[in-house]
Amino acid sequence: MSTFNLTAESPLGVFKQFCEEGKLAYQVTPSGQAVFYPRIVAPQTGETLSWQISKGEGTVYSTSVIHLKGIEPYNIALIDLDEGFRMMSRVEEMPPEKVSIGMRVKMKMSKDKEGRALPVFVQGDSK
Amino acid sequence: MRGLKSASVAIVGAAESDLGLCAPGTSPIDLMAQATLRALEDSGLKISDIDAIFSASTQTRYTTLALKEYLGLEPSYHDNSHIGGASFMTHVAHAMMALEQGLCKVALITYGSTQKSVSRAAASPREYNPYETPYSPFLPAAAYAMAAARHMHQYGTTREHLAQVAVSARQWALKNPIAWEKTPLSIEDALSAKMVSYPLTVRDCCLVSDGGGAILLTVSDRARDLRKKPVYVLGVGEALSHLSISNMPDLTVTAATRSGPLAFNMAKLGVKDVDVALLYDAFSINTILFLEDLGFCPKGEGGRFVQGGAISPGGSCPVNTNGGGLSYCHPGMYGLMLLIEATRQIRGECGDRQIGGCEVALAHGNGGVLSSQATVILGAQP
Predict the structure, then answer these.
(1) B198 vs A97: CB contact, 8 Å cut-off?
(2) Which of the residues B127, B129, B246 would you substitute to probe the A interface, choosing the one with the greatest number of A C-beta atoms within 10 Å?
(3) Is B132 on the interface with A (CB under 8 A)?
(4) Does the beta-carbon distance from A65 to B137 stay under 8 Å?
(5) Among chain A residues, CA nearest to B248
(6) pLDDT band at residue B53 using 50, 70 and 90 as cut-offs
(7) CB-CB neighbours of B313 under 10 Å
(8) Burial of B108: CB neighbours in 10 Å, binned 0-12, 13-18, 19+
(9) With respect to CATH, is domain B9-121+209-232 assigned 2.30.30.240?
(10) Which positions 297-356 of B are in contact with A (Cβ < 8 Å)?
(11) What is the pTM of this model?
(12) For the segment A28-69, what is each residue's pLDDT rounded down to a tens digit?
């Protein structure tokens, strides 16, 4: 049984609130399996999920540089966080083509076009 | 798939609509209606014979209702299942079920798109994903680019291997009079083309076309009395993986590893029996992934497999003889066009690009961002 009360809060709403506090949140199952994106119950089991805060350290799983007319090429990447979940993000503060698979990265809370908190990544310390 | 009977049904009509760039005002349903009438002519059936509609579209949400209205159909069965470009392979499986169960007698599967006329953004607006859209990922290209980057990292696949897929497709397209691309393409041309999403250049990405198609199916006993030689549905398999690329477990392994065996087991055939493979090449990496995942070569060897022209005209493993989504036509969701080419290869109607003695053709559909995979095996004999 999910304990989520969707008339009071949503998985996305909670996630975004954590982001505004500078925290990258994810969920875990009772047995400690990481779940991302946030949802109201664990996939496959339907178990209740609890929120955790990631250390924000991870590895680039894959990466691309997007070339669109009229704007500078930019990075897009899939990041494997050390806690065991994957998310899409961007690696910033370096040339986008220098971002490589296997590179260590750490989360930095940035802002989206509307000024809301958005987790991005920068190069991190080697493991 | 279990529960379905190999060769219980056959494709008895197949046709494209007009392709390329349509006149202003053309609707997706105009294209579907045109293709349907051509498929009926191909089969010798009439509009009033159609009693089941299978379709999916990004431009007209209630596609089966639109077709019912436009063509004045009276369907006893219909299916608007939508899993992206592989929808039409799924429709073959679902039509087979409906025909076997006697829920209908003649099934129409059709598709049309005006995405070149009205723009991709208008024809196929992306749903907002709060965990992806804020990063402006330029989907679907960037998803396939990240699959390609990962494949290169893990298996030593190169941009030249990807370019070879585009070159082979172009060589086939030059043998297909209705293919969009009319000029030769070299590896160097493909590598030096405009970068879209690294490592994919514009030549690694499918065309944006208007167009559509239609196929008609009926039970095999009736198929034998119609105008053309029946093309039997020997095996079908479908597999769902994920919706968003962030949730694909391994970007180098697709759910074709599940849909392929389902289809092959049902057909009681193996890859060695396949005379021509039509593999959904929305991007060059797709062909490499599906060659591996369907068993034409070992995992990781797809790049080296295509190097040297194995999938080109005259090669050991003919793939995408129509020129593919890369060089023939790609109207947004492309799966039906693969079934049309597979049908024509079995019938021996492909002119300069005909594979000699083609008895078994495999058409593999892909949808979303490597999200859905569906495989259909067609044969000349039941």
Answers:
(1) yes
(2) B246
(3) yes
(4) no
(5) A86
(6) very high
(7) 15
(8) buried
(9) no
(10) none
(11) 0.97
(12) 999 999 999 999 999 999 999 999 999 999 999 999 999 999
Q: How far is A78 from chain B (nearest CA, A)?
A: 7
- Chain B nearest-CA distance from A7, in A, is 19
B121 — contact with chain A (CB < 8 Å)?
no
Alpha-carbon dihedral B204, B90, B106, B38, rounded to 10 degrees: -10
Question: Each residue of B190-237: pLDDT tens digit?
Answer: 999 999 999 999 999 999 999 999 999 999 999 999 999 999 999 999
Q: CA of B287, closest CA in chain A: separation in Å?
A: 19
- Rounded Cα distance between B64 and B195, Å, is 38
pLDDT in tens, B325-350: 999 999 999 999 999 999 999 999 99
Residue A3 distance to chain B (closest CA, Å) = 23
Peptide bond into A37 cis (omega under 30): yes
Say which amino acid occupies A36.
Answer: F
Say yes or no: domain A57-123 is CATH 1.25.40: no
- Burial label for B57, CB within 10 Å (0-12, 13-18, 19+), is buried
Distance from CA of B198 to the nearest CA of A (A): 5
Quick check: helix, strand or coil at residue B216?
Answer: strand
Asked if the C-beta of A68 comes within 8 angstroms of chain B's C-beta atoms, the answer is yes
Predicted complex: ipTM over 0.95: yes
In chain A, CATH 2.40.50 covers 57-123
Q: Give the length of chain B.
A: 382
**For residue range B282-294, what is the model confidence (pLDDT) as tens digits?**
999 999 999 999 9
**What stretch(es) of chain B map to CATH 3.40.47.10?**
9-121+209-232, 138-205+235-379
Residues of chain A found within 8 Å of residue B132, distances taken between Cβ atoms: 88
Which one is the CATH code of B138-205+235-379: 3.40.50.300, 3.40.50.1970, 3.40.47.10, 1.10.1200.10?
3.40.47.10
Nearest to B196 among A63, A67, A74 (CB): A67
Q: Is the preceding peptide bond at B140 cis, omega within 30 degrees of 0?
A: yes
Q: Does B369 touch chain A (CB under 8 A)?
A: no
Does residue A1 surpass a pLDDT of 60? no
Chain A residues inside the 8 Å CB shell of B147: 62
- Which residue among B138, B145, B246 sits closest to A87, beta carbon to beta carbon? B246
Q: Which among B149, B195, B245 has CB closest to A67?
A: B195
In angstroms, the Cα distances linking B196 to A50, A64, B242 are 40, 10, 24
Count of A–B CB contacts within 8 Å?
76
Which tokens is B128 given? 């907002």
Six-digit token string for B273:
């029996």
B184 φψ region: left (φ > 0), alpha (ψ -120 to 50), beta (else): beta
The three-point CA angle B41-B44-B46 to 5° equals 80
